[in-house]
UniProtKB/TrEMBL annotation:
Residues 56-277 form the NodB homology domain. GO terms for biological process: carbohydrate metabolic process. Is involved in generating a small heat-stable compound (Nod), an acylated oligomer of N-acetylglucosamine, that stimulates mitosis in various plant protoplasts. This is Chitooligosaccharide deacetylase. The lineage of its organism: Bacteria, Pseudomonadati, Pseudomonadota, Alphaproteobacteria, Acetobacterales.
Length: 294
């Protein structure tokens, strides 16, 4: 229950002080964009919620599906469609499933930072800096990767995290849900932050396609999700804006959801006007136009 003191401490200003996103053009001949991205959490999706889940082997098997089946199937599909994507991977997943992580890199996809244990970055979280440091260390040691992109575990953010990403040299983050175009963060002290590639909430497959005994939520049928995804994309194309996916191999790597994703990506490619790109490519396009206009 809220109390008057905590309510009085709420700042009377927008949580995000960055100006509206600039309408920079997309590379010709494209007039809109899709940031195609996946979150590879594996079992850390479950242990982040409760460390005791590590001893609940069926619970852990939901995450284990990623390395055994989901990620290989998705990589095959992306190869068949000739698409590159960004895979945000937790450090724990890289350590536990090195062959899976190496296969993503070998297939030519971008690797992004997604924490270590997949712990949500809450205010005053004591593990926030450790999550960042261990994630960077594992990606470098195991894969030889220095990531330029970051996605917050469980999609949460704090001002401390926003500042830390700048110190660590991260070029872009992809966690906020407040725009349909890339923009640059503004830190609390007024200095420039990372570029934000905002997430499109409806393209989070976890919301529509994964049901476990911990949730009474039903899995949405393909027809419902495909209709919703096409409508969101078509309107975004009319706006000349961008959609960002948050796809999980333990969800979209399953047979029914893979077929859905294949159909949707095929539809997107056939539109002809959507630039399907990685985060580093979209951030580079932003920097190009930002620099040209400076």
């Amino acid at each position: 229950m809220q109390d008057s003191n905590s309510l009085a401490r709420i700042p009377l200003q927008p949580a995000n002080m960055a100006p509206p996103a600039p309408e920079f053009p997309w590379p010709a001949p494209f007039t809109s964009a899709m940031f195609l991205s996946f979150d590879v959490d594996a079992e850390s999706a479950w242990t982040a919620k409760n460390a005791q889940h590590a001893e609940r082997l069926v619970t852990m098997s939901y995450g284990g599906f990623e390395a055994r089946v989901g990620t290989p199937k998705l990589l095959d599909m992306l190869r068949q469609l000739d698409l590159r994507a960004t895979f945000f991977i937790t450090g724990w997943s890289v350590e536990a499933h090195p062959a899976m992580a190496e296969s993503i890199l070998a297939a030519g996809h971008e690797i992004g930072h997604h924490g270590y244990y997949h712990l949500m970055p809450d205010p005053d979280e004591p593990f926030l800096q450790e999550e960042l440091e261990r994630g960077f260390e594992v990606l470098k040691r195991r894969l030889g990767v220095v990531p330029t992109g970051y996605r917050a575990p469980s999609g949460e953010f704090t001002e401390e995290l926003r500042q830390s990403l700048v110190r660590h040299g991260i070029t872009y983050s992809s966690s906020f849900r407040d725009d349909v175009r890339p923009y640059r963060h503004l830190l609390a002290d007024g200095t420039r932050g990372t570029i934000e590639l905002p997430v499109t909430a409806s393209y989070d497959d976890w919301m529509h396609g994964l049901s476990t005994r911990f949730s009474a939520r039903s899995i949405f049928p393909k027809e419902h999700v495909l209709s919703m995804w096409k409508d969101e994309l078509d309107e975004t194309r009319d706006w000349g804006a961008m959609v960002t996916t948050v796809l999980h191999p333990q969800c979209s790597g399953r047979p029914m959801r893979l077929r859905l994703l294949r159909d949707f990506l095929t539809y997107t490619k056939n539109c002809g006007d959507v630039w399907i790109a990685t985060g580093e490519e979209i951030a580079a396009n932003y920097i190009h136009h930002e620099t040209a206009g400076a």
